[in-house]
Design goal:
This protein is an all-alpha fold. The protein contains 10 helices and no strands. The protein has one domain. Helices cover 60% and strands 0% of the residues.
């Protein structure tokens, strides 16, 4: 994302969404999904994907990270933050990971996946969705899930790109 002059981290994307009056953090985004009775956490979303045998995206990305001995799942990362009472945003979670010398941002995590030829970046994923005239941000993606009532997980959303 940095090399093509887009955004550097998911945090910057969320900040841009915040500036447009959308959401403040991914947590708030997930809370909004909870409000409309979709899913409660990203963990539940991933669990539902697993139940349907569709773990092809972020979950696999995190599993590859586990293979390299970094972190197990984003959920575990968040749980570790929660244990020390610091879990406020995904940004803080990623900063904590940076502090212990694992990965710097989700972007870097996805870049490692790109190196292995799996996916490019979440940014490219969102750009592809924008290109086909569907949605422009993850927030819009979740809003579409809410209003249309057809897509219930991030996995399904990505499949519908």
């Amino acid at each position: 994302m940095q090399t093509v002059g887009l955004i550097h981290t998911l945090e910057q994307r969320l900040n841009r969404m915040q500036a447009m009056g959308l959401i403040h953090t991914l947590e708030q985004c997930l809370n909004r999904m909870q409000t409309v009775g979709l899913i409660h956490t990203l963990e539940q979303c991933l669990n539902r994907m697993q139940t349907m045998g569709l773990i092809h995206t972020l979950e696999q990305c995190l599993n590859r990270v586990q293979t390299m001995g970094l972190i197990h799942t984003l959920e575990q990362c968040l749980n570790r933050m929660q244990t020390v009472g610091l879990i406020h945003t995904l940004e803080q979670c990623l900063n904590r990971v940076q502090t212990v010398g694992l990965i710097h941002t989700l972007e870097q995590c996805l870049n490692r996946v790109q190196t292995m030829g799996l996916i490019h970046t979440l940014e490219q994923c969102l750009n592809r969705m924008q290109t086909v005239g569907l949605i422009h941000t993850l927030e819009q993606c979740l809003n579409r899930v809410q209003t249309v009532g057809l897509i219930h997980t991030l996995e399904q959303c990505l499949n519908n790109m």
